[in-house]
Amino acid sequence: MTGFLADAREYLPILLQGVWLTILVTLGSLVLSTVLGLAWVFMRVSGLAWLARVSLVAINLIRGVPIIVILFYIYFVMPDLGLSLSAVQAAVIGLGVAYSAYQAENFRAAIEAIDAGQREAAASIGMGWGLSMRRVILPQALRVALPGFGNVCVMMLKDSSQASTITVAELALQGKLIASSTFKNTTVFTLVAVLYLCMSLPLILLVRRLERRAAPR
After folding, report:
1. How far, rounded to the nearest angstrom, does the alpha carbon of residue 138 sit from its chain's CA centroid?
2. Using CA atoms in the order 105, 109, 111, 115, what is the torsion angle rounded to 10 degrees?
3. Do 129 and 49 meet the contact criterion of CB atoms below 8 Å apart?
4. Which of 23, 37, 80, 202 is the most buried (most CB within 10 A)?
5. What count of Cα atoms within 13 Å lies in the side-chain half-sphere of residue 14?
6. Residues 155, 175: Cα–Cα separation, whole Å
7. How far apart are CA 76 and CA 81, in angstroms?
8. What is the pLDDT of residues 98-125, one digit of tens each?
9. What percentage of the chain carries pLDDT values higher than 90?
10. Residue that wins the pLDDT comparison between 127 and 200
């Protein structure tokens, strides 16, 4: 136990650098996936058939490609097309695009959960699609979507480890590098697991609280 604590004191500063990058990639991806997810779902429920089809095709394509392939494509292929990005930028964009499809489905389900009578009531007082969506539907739908949004946050935090495949020195890669140079696999990956838990557990508890608040009474 004494040896573990001594190693922990030595390795934690390096691992915490990885934690910072993990948080940065997660937050950046979360913002991008939310914006894109809302864009996809607005296209889907716009009432315009061609926009809905474009959104549906995009969502299905994104969901059908593994995250790691999206990351590889952005980081390794896009430079051949004239667009070079840093590893962190590629990770944020790749994870953001990948999770935008799941965000869109979460938001769509929340919007469809709102009673149709409210749309009809908004239309009856002269509200157009955009105004009724902004003032009536969306505020209620976002509350319904909160538990699913929280689950996406947790999954995105864990999947940020895939950024290590394109050389982002986040927590998982830092742990791998330390373990490969010291051969203290048990100590290092125990610390990595504990750090992921320290980041994930507050989010999991928050999701449970949101689920209880959003549950019908």
Report:
1. 20
2. 170
3. no
4. 37
5. 17
6. 20
7. 10
8. 999 999 999 998 888 887 777 777 777 7
9. 45
10. 200
